[in-house]
Design goal:
The chain is of the alpha+beta class. About 45% of the residues lie in helices and about 10% in strands. The strands form 3 sheets. The chain has a two-stranded antiparallel ribbon. The radius of gyration is 30 Å and the shape is globular.
Length: about 250
């Protein structure tokens, strides 16, 4: 018995008897090694693993690889610039959009949708919007090259980036009559992420959402995007959406 948990008391006949000290919350705890049977015992203090601090430092210092869009922007190879006006910032093209090579620039700007820092995200989002608005039938042959950038942006799990991608997909599908059916074979790569975040809604109770004009409710955006995909995807769109997103209910089929 250790002196910390027991004490000797003098009794009759000048003999000492052993009495157990009552338990208190201030009793010192035993230090035990991690990942051992002793670490499961009561009144023990588990040592921190030696590699824990190093792992935490490495995790926080981890940086994502730079996108191709960022590399092009840093080199000054993009035909787009920022104009600082009195009313705010405005993005303008240095060349006519109709003369751009969509095979090069449209996948490049889609790749920039994964960016979360200014000015990269600002240029990428505005550039994609302008290219889709003026692309027309030139977008259809490039659809396979856009799937990987879209998937990479969804895999960031960043709510702002994912909401932006939903709006871009809606604009992409409505940009041309050929794009909707061409997207159906790629549902298997995109819709599983839709299914995982379909119920991610903002629950405010009886409060008022003053930011609803920004349309950043991911669950609602996914529902809207699925409806657009079904509407413009042709006759095979619904059955493919239903297979990958079982909770989706059609708004066009009675």
């Amino acid at each position: 018995m250790s002196a910390s948990s027991n004490f000797l008391k003098k009794g009759s006949g000048a003999k000492y008897t052993l009495h157990r000290r009552p338990y208190t919350a201030n009793c010192s705890k035993r230090i035990v090694p991690p990942f051992s049977i002793q670490s499961l015992q009561k009144n023990t203090l588990v040592l921190e693993p030696k590699f824990a601090k190093k792992f935490i430092i490495d995790r926080h210092n981890f940086s994502k690889p730079a996108t191709s869009f960022r590399m092009y922007y840093d080199r000054g190879d993009l035909p787009i610039k920022m104009e600082y006006l009195i009313g705010g910032e405005k993005i303008s093209w240095t060349v006519d959009i109709d003369k751009l090579d969509y095979t090069l620039y449209l996948p490049l700007f889609f790749d920039g949708l994964s960016e979360t820092q200014h000015p990269y995200k600002t240029f990428a989002r505005q550039g994609v919007q302008d290219l889709l608005s003026n692309g027309g039938d030139k977008i259809f042959p490039i659809i396979p090259q856009l799937i990987i950038p879209i998937k990479n942006a969804l895999n960031t799990k960043n709510i702002e980036v994912m909401c932006t991608i939903m709006k871009v997909i809606q604009q992409l599908v409505t940009a041309s009559d050929l794009v909707g059916p061409a997207m159906v074979p790629f549902y298997r790569q995109l819709l599983p992420i839709f299914n995982a975040y379909k119920t991610r809604n903002i629950n405010l109770g009886d409060c008022i959402d003053y930011a609803q004009k920004n349309n950043l409710n991911l669950g609602d955006l996914i529902d809207e995007t699925l409806q657009v995909l079904e509407k413009y995807g042709g006759e095979d769109a619904f059955i493919n959406i239903k297979y990958l997103v079982p909770t989706y209910e059609s708004t066009f089929i009675n």
